[in-house]
Amino acid sequence: MKFILLKSRGGDYLVVAANIAYLRADENGQTKVGLVGGDSLLVVGSMEEVAEKVLAG
Prior knowledge:
This protein has one helix at 47-56, and strands at 3-8, 11-16, 20-25, 30-35, 40-44. By secondary structure, it is an alpha+beta fold.
């Protein structure tokens, strides 16, 4: 499993890369990260920035 560190204004998340279903732009320059079989996470950064982290992960 490959974990990716995603930062949030309320704390940080370690997310399994294979569990990411989608990215969606949200308010205030944040991105929603949808997870397979779960809720979405609101993280700091644009969709492009988050996608770079996921692909580099």
